[in-house]
Amino acid sequence: MRVKILVVGANGQIGKHLVKTIQNSGSHTARAMIRKQEQAAYFNELGAEVSVTDVEGEIEDIAKAAEGVDAIVFTAGSGPHTGKDKTIMVDLDGAVKTIEAAKAAGVNRFIMVSSFDTRREAIQEAPPSFAPYVAAKHYADEWLKRTDLNYTIVHPGALVNEPGTGLVQAAQEVDRGAVPREDVAHVIFECLENDSTIGKQFQVVTGSTPIKEAIQSL
C-alpha cells in the first residue's frame, strides 16, 4: 500500500535525508513541512509535496498540513545555537502540538525523533546548557506515550554528518556512540515499514547489523 508521510522539520538534516529516502523508495511519498517557501526547492526537485507551516504556529495549522497523510514523523529541533526559549517552543511545545494535530487529523501513526537518553535521571545528569533540551524531549516523549497513537520513539546517539554505513546497533539500551544522520533517516523509514516497532522506543548508534535487520529484531 502506498503511504504518504508528513515529515515535520523536513528542512533539517535528518529531515532532508528522510524525504529523499521516502521519495526514492518507489513505494511511499513524502509531504515536507517547512517554515519558509524559499526552502521548498530541494523538495520540489525530489517530487515531494510541500506544506509551508510553522511548527510554532497553531495546532489547527499543523493539522491542516497533516490532512490526508498516513503517518507523521517529528524530526524538528531547535538546534544547538538557540536558547532555552526555542528549545521549549520547538522541541516541547512544537512536538506536543504536532501530536495533538495528528489526533485532530485522524493520523494514527507517529514517529518521534528524540534525544539519546530522555529518562528523568538524564535531565539531572546533563550539563546545565543541555538539560533544558533533555527535559523538553523527556516531556514530549511522555506526552506521546500517553496517547492512543501508534507511536515509535527513536533515540539516536551523537549525530554526525558522515555518509551512512547502513549498519547500526539498535536496542532499548545501547552504549553511547555516534550515528550518521543518513542512517537515522533509514532507521525511521524502516520503522514506517515495520509495524512491530509500534509502541516501542529504542536507542540507535553505529554498529554491525544492517538497518532493516536491526529494526526487525527490536
TrEMBL record:
InterPro entries the record matches: NAD(P)-bd_dom (IPR016040), NAD(P)-bd_dom_sf (IPR036291)
Pfam families: NAD_binding_10
Domain NAD(P)-binding: 9-194
Segments passing through the bilayer: none
Protein name: NAD(P)-binding domain-containing protein
UniProt source species: Halalkalibacter wakoensis JCM 9140
